[in-house]
Backbone:
């Protein structure tokens, strides 16, 4: 059964609501745009409430399949004109589909319910670039990390840019958002999870750290990194060796390098190295 006639006014209530979610003014919902991200949201069984799409999207084979899936999974789907969709899109080249979903539960209790016996956690502290934060989560899931903690002052991991950076990983990876730095570190210590921070002045390289036990990698803000007091709270510190004159790496690149070294060590210990992709 088709949807109602296309919405053609930018002042339509649903269009206004979608823009409010996009801009972070509706905290309990997230704005998911694009075919791939909407596919990931449907696959992750998010609570999708509204879907907004264009006629062009519905006429494409992949788009039509996605729309069928979302119609059965969502409460409401609405056809809108291209101009209305352009008014709410967050990308330069809109693909013609947006889903509005309930924000996943990301508190301490939910994170604890999903805790692994031998966790590999990444702690993002004041990482304020949404694309970088999303990319860290993507690398974390790809390398087999068991979850991520995002402290106060870290960007909203469910903003449109962060969601594009994570490419669906933020829908699946156990997350704890809004934690205080000391709270996150103490949570790890109480559970025997060794905390290791990235520090350009550290004496040990990332390959010299033992990642085979319960571990948490702490990465700081892109420009300032971690303060001396924050570094002192961690159990160990590491550096990634770099050839001069390069002094630092993008936080997502650095996190990926370390997380994959941790994954390699764990795979060797378990007898599963080299890893063959599914």
Residues:
């Amino acid at each position: 059964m088709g949807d109602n006639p296309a919405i053609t006014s930018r002042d339509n209530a649903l269009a206004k609501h979608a823009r409010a979610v996009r801009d972070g003014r509706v905290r309990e919902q997230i704005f998911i745009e694009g075919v791939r991200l909407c596919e990931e949201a449907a696959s992750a069984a998010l609570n999708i409430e509204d879907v907004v799409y264009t006629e062009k999207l519905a006429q494409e084979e992949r788009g039509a399949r996605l729309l069928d899936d979302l119609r059965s999974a969502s409460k409401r789907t609405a056809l809108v004109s291209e101009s209305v969709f352009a008014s709410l899109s967050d990308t330069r080249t809109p693909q013609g589909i947006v889903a509005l979903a309930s924000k996943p539960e990301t508190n301490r209790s939910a994170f604890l319910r999903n805790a692994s016996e031998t966790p590999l956690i990444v702690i993002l502290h004041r990482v304020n670039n949404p694309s970088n934060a999303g990319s860290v989560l993507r690398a974390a899931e790809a390398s087999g990390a068991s979850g991520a903690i995002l402290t106060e002052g870290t960007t909203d991991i469910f903003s449109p840019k962060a969601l594009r950076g994570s490419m669906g990983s933020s829908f699946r990876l156990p997350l704890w958002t809004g934690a205080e730095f000391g709270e996150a570190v103490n949570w790890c210590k109480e559970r025997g999870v060794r905390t290791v921070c990235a520090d350009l002045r550290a004496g040990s390289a990332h390959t010299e750290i033992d990642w085979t036990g319960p571990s948490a990698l702490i990465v700081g803000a892109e420009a300032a990194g971690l303060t001396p007091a924050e570094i002192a709270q961690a159990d160990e510190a590491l550096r990634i060796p770099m050839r001069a004159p390069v002094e630092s790496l993008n936080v997502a690149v650095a996190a990926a390098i370390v997380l994959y070294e941790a994954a390699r060590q764990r795979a060797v210990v378990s007898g599963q190295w080299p890893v063959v992709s599914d």
The mean pLDDT is 94. The first strand starts at residue 29 and ends at 33. The radius of gyration is 21 Å. The beta strands are 29-33, 48-53, 76-79, 97-102, 120-124, 147-151, 175-179, 194-198, 215-219, 236-238.
